[in-house]
Write a structure and sequence with these properties.
675 residues; mainly alpha; Methyltransferase, Methionine Synthase (B12-binding Domains), Chain A, domain 1; Lysozyme; two-stranded antiparallel sheet; two-stranded antiparallel ribbon; 39 helices; 64% helix; 1% strand
């Protein structure tokens, strides 16, 4: 903020020059400079005071917080400090005082945070009248506990629709929050939640490996029918050992469910290991259970790219597949080039799934192969207007190639000045300057949540000017009709990156596309597995690269330095490109998931690049490769390079050599590579 103020003062009071070129400064100019310097000193003091106030709040030191608060009333951080103070005595606070705070800070993040805190307290106190008054005003309503309290409150008020909503939540929620227990218990007592519904929820949890959730759901069964806690734990932790022992009486559903869970738990780790156990268990099961397990085995076979998956999906005919199974049945059909099954598989999906870009594209692709061009083009035309991977593929299917839309709106200085004066924007930038990135991101997202395209582009430009590149990208990405792809696809550090890209003979647009996805150009970025810097290089990979490059003095902290990170990242990208016969898709997958995995995902026959990417088993890697390749196209257009269609970038993936394996491959590790 003060850089801008200093610039303003310079332009207003710039010095005049004598003939010999020596400047003279007026008293007004010197006074302005003194004012700026004083303001900067005050701001620095307030920054330190805020950090100390934040720490006092975290430690529960009310006395120190209150002492510091008096020095922060005029700072951008004051709403946070006031929130800290009131939150620490929320239990004793008068409801009127809480409402006054929320009114004084209306439409602010801290007001919504306090409302959520208060609602949690009201729910625990079962003050349902006050809860129902405030709950509809909550904006960030992502707390499962509060949703459960709202169901309790509505039930207490005699809301007839609460049973239907609670039942829907039973099947939808990822977790069974304890605050919903009274409502779920009432559903069971009323017969609105049957034993079949409870078993369905147990299965849903076990399919996702959420054993504790399955145990919670099983508590709603009659005492004699519940799944044994020890049995489930054993089947989850060591399913082979569980199955090697006596699995219990298969006439008892609880025992059957645990045994079936253990079988497909083994299949998740290694499909072939599960088959002997499955052969032994099958004669003891009825048709419904047989079909259910076939569906689970088919899902794991599809993720392992085993064509037996299609046969097993047919054996599971009549089972209500979950969304993962529906997705992987279509992906297995894609790898088998079974276009009839691709179409029927997509048509079997719920409407919301069919509306997703991925399935719209593949449905159109299947229709084109069947020469049903009119139907295909009716799907492709609207999809081609979307600026993403599937939109690009749709556009090329219609005979065109992607091009960056012209800048349709550029905010003027007046609009930028107004945006920079927005209190929430100022607060977010101040938090960012203090390296409180989590708080800064939350504040920013809160402020821009209702912005139209013009305001989004103004905010994105403010973020860019402030050096907050990742926030500029994410904000510009949200526009719907007016776009600025210079903000969506920025190219900081271009001179440095070009040098390293040229040194390794890499496509600059591809490297930029990868960095945009890896770190959003955040130099300090660090993943939860330890990858660091702009190109998110893993520590073990960095050591391997340093050894290959002959850098004996390399220290692990150097990977955060821009030049080292770009040098190592482009070196490794060149390495995985060469080891994958120059196929950029495989190199991109290798960069994210490891070279061994990327090669294992190939087929025994040549495979269309888009199908290879679609059938990557890891959701994160699949999304990553799609975005990197899509980004590369947009960057290439930005740089004025010759147009390379996305389908050409994806190419054809060569067949896998017979017998190629790489056991024990770690994430992003080059351990399968020869020294």
């Amino acid at each position: 903020m003060f850089r801008e103020l200093l610039s303003l003062c310079w332009s207003a009071f710039r010095p005049t020059c004598r003939p010999e070129g020596r400047p003279t400064f007026s008293r007004h100019y010197l006074a302005a400079i003194a004012l700026v310097l004083f303001s900067m000193q005050v701001s620095a003091g307030q920054d330190e005071d805020f950090l100390q106030a934040r720490e006092a709040f975290r430690k529960g030191d009310a006395a120190r917080l209150n002492m510091l608060a008096g020095r922060l009333e005029s700072s951008p951080f004051w709403p946070y400090v006031a929130y800290y103070q009131l939150h620490m005595r929320l239990r004793e606070a008068d409801p009127a005082e809480i409402r006054v705070f929320m009114a004084d800070h209306a439409d602010s993040l801290v007001s919504d945070k306090l409302r959520a805190d208060w609602l949690g307290l009201l729910g625990r106190q079962q003050d349902w009248a006050a809860f129902l008054l405030e709950y509809p005003r909550l904006v960030n309503n992502r707390d499962g506990e509060l949703e459960c309290y709202s169901l309790q409150a509505r039930r207490a008020q005699g809301d007839d629709a609460v049973q239907q909503d609670a039942r829907a939540r039973w099947f939808r929620a990822a977790e069974l929050n304890a605050a919903c227990a009274p409502v779920y218990g009432a559903l069971v007592d009323a017969g609105a939640l049957s034993q079949a519904d409870v078993w369905a929820r147990v299965r849903m949890a076990l399919e996702l490996g959420k054993v504790s959730v399955a145990q919670q759901a099983a508590e709603y069964l009659p005492a004699g029918q519940r799944v044994g806690l020890k049995d489930l734990d054993r089947a989850a932790s060591d399913p082979k050992r569980y199955l090697d022992k006596k699995t219990g009486d298969m006439s008892v559903r609880a025992q059957r469910e645990v045994a079936m869970f253990a079988v497909y738990r083994v299949a998740k780790n290694k499909l072939s290991d599960a088959l002997p156990y499955w052969d032994r268990l099958r004669p003891k099961l009825g048709e419904e259970d047989l079909a259910y397990v076939w569906g689970q085995l088919a899902f794991h076979a599809a993720r392992n790219h085993d064509l037996i998956a299609l046969k097993w999906f047919r054996a599971a005919d009549g089972v209500a597949f979950n969304e993962l199974q529906l997705s992987w049945r279509v992906r297995a059909a894609l790898r088998a080039s079974d276009w009839e099954l691709v179409l029927s598989g997509i048509q079997a999906m719920p409407e919301a799934m069919q509306a997703q870009g991925v399935w719209r594209y593949w449905k159109a692709h299947a229709l084109k192969i069947q020469n049903r061009l009119g139907e295909a083009n009716a799907i492709l035309a609207p999809l081609s207007l979307e600026h993403n991977f599937y939109g690009q593929l749709a556009l090329e299917s219609l005979g065109s190639v992607v091009s960056n839309p012209p800048v349709s709106y550029t905010p003027d200085e007046r609009a930028l000045s107004a945006m920079s004066m927005t209190p929430g924007i100022q607060r977010a930038l101040s938090l960012y300057d203090l390296d409180l990135r989590v708080e800064a991101n939350r504040e920013w997202l809160w402020v821009i949540r209702g912005f139209d395209d013009k305001k989004l582009l103004a905010a994105a430009e403010i973020a860019r000017r402030h050096g907050w590149i990742d926030r500029a990208i994410n904000t510009a990405d949200k526009t719907r009709e007016l776009h600025d792809f210079n903000l969506r696809y920025p190219s900081p550090l271009r001179e440095q990156l070009q040098a390293y890209a040229r040194e390794q003979d890499l496509d600059e647009a591809w490297v930029y596309g990868l960095i945009r996805q890896e770190s959003r150009f955040v130099q300090q970025a660090k993943s939860n597995v330890g990858a660091a810097g702009l190109m998110q290089v893993m520590p073990s990979t960095a050591q391997w690269i340093a050894k290959r490059m002959g850098l004996r003095s390399y220290q692990k902290h150097q990977i955060n330095e821009i030049d080292t990170n770009l040098s190592f990242g482009t070196y490794y990208l060149r390495h995985v490109l060469d080891s994958n016969d120059g196929q950029a898709v495989l190199a991109t997958a290798s960069y994210n998931a490891g070279p061994g995995r990327a090669r294992r995902w190939k087929d025994v026959k040549s495979l269309e690049g888009a199908i290879y990417v679609e059938s990557i088993p890891f959701t994160e890697t699949r999304d990553y490769v799609q975005k990197v390749m899509s980004n590369a196209s947009y960057y290439s257009n930005r740089f004025g390079n010759p147009v390379i269609p996305l389908k050409q970038r994806l190419g054809m993936i060569s067949p896998k050599p017979s017998g190629e394996t790489c056991a024990g491959q770690n994430d992003r590790s080059p351990s399968c590579e020869p020294d």
